[in-house]
């Protein structure tokens, strides 16, 4: 299937909570898009005609313009919905949205991966997952007495599914779930006595 890929679109936007759990505070946001149009690009290649391709410049410029005007999104789903509306004419849309400064104790921040599939036989199907990168934690690792004297620093990546189903924004704003996941991992690792590294996973 033909696709058009846009990578590394950078913004400063307020999306949910920032690293200090404050609302409406801008933070760095990096967006990658993989757009599968509703038509193939074979005709454009055969005729060497740019008018028959997907003009990625238009959604890019519109996305940059509107995102910089909106600036504040209650949670990640509102940003995804906005991007989906801007791209508009697609068969499927894959998004990677990175927030590198969203958590104080995650060295590489977090990333959301969203997929919106508008295949005629499936209707509109939406999936969303969260990956937190390099969560910092300290725990005791090992079975020997000298190994259990001091805690050692560990770094974890963890991925969790958030949504699978129809693409709707309903109910309360879903803010702060990345903080909740991060806090839970730190608590499990640091509070409980761990004898072997395998027990952490």
In short:
This is Dihydroneopterin aldolase/epimerase domain-containing protein. By secondary structure, the protein is of the alpha+beta class.
How are the strands of the largest sheet arranged?
3-1-2-4-5-6-7
CATH class: Alpha Beta
- Give the total of beta strands: 7
Largest sheet: 7 strands, mixed
How many structural units, i.e. domains?
1
N-to-C span: 36 Å
Let me know the average pLDDT: 81
Could you name the CATH homologous superfamily? GTP cyclohydrolase I, C-terminal domain/NADPH-dependent 7-cyano-7-deazaguanine reductase, N-terminal domain
Strand content: 25-35%
Spatial shape = elongated
Considering DSSP H and I runs of 4 or more, what fraction of the residues is helical?
10-25%
N to C succession of SSEs? EEHHEHEEEEH
The CATH architecture designation is 2-Layer Sandwich
Total number of helices: 4
CATH topology: GTP Cyclohydrolase I, domain 2
Secondary-structure-based class equals alpha+beta
Could you list the spans in which at least 5 consecutive residues all have pLDDT below 50? 193-198
State the main characteristics.
single chain; 7 strands; 201 residues; seven-stranded mixed β-sheet; GTP Cyclohydrolase I, domain 2
């Amino acid at each position: 299937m033909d696709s058009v890929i846009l990578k590394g679109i950078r913004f400063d936007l307020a999306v949910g909570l920032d690293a200090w759990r404050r609302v409406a505070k801008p933070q760095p946001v990096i967006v990658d898009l993989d757009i599968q149009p509703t038509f193939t690009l074979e005709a454009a290649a055969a005729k060497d005609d740019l008018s028959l391709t997907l003009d990625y410049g238009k959604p890019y410029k519109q996305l940059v313009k509107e995102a910089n005007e909106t600036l504040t999104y209650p949670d990640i789903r509102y940003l995804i919905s906005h991007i989906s509306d801007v791209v508009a004419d697609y068969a499927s849309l894959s998004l990677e949205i990175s927030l590198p400064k969203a958590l104080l104790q995650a060295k590489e921040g977090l990333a959301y991966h969203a997929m919106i599939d508008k295949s005629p036989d499936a209707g509109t199907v939406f999936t969303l997952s969260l990956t937190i990168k390099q969560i910092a934690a300290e725990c005791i690792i090992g079975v020997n007495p000298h190994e259990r004297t001091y805690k050692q620093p560990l770094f974890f990546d963890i991925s969790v599914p958030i949504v699978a189903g129809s693409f709707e924004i309903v109910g309360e704003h879903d803010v702060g779930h990345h903080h909740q996941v991060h806090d839970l991992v730190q608590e499990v690792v640091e509070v409980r006595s761990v004898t072997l590294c395998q027990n952490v996973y």
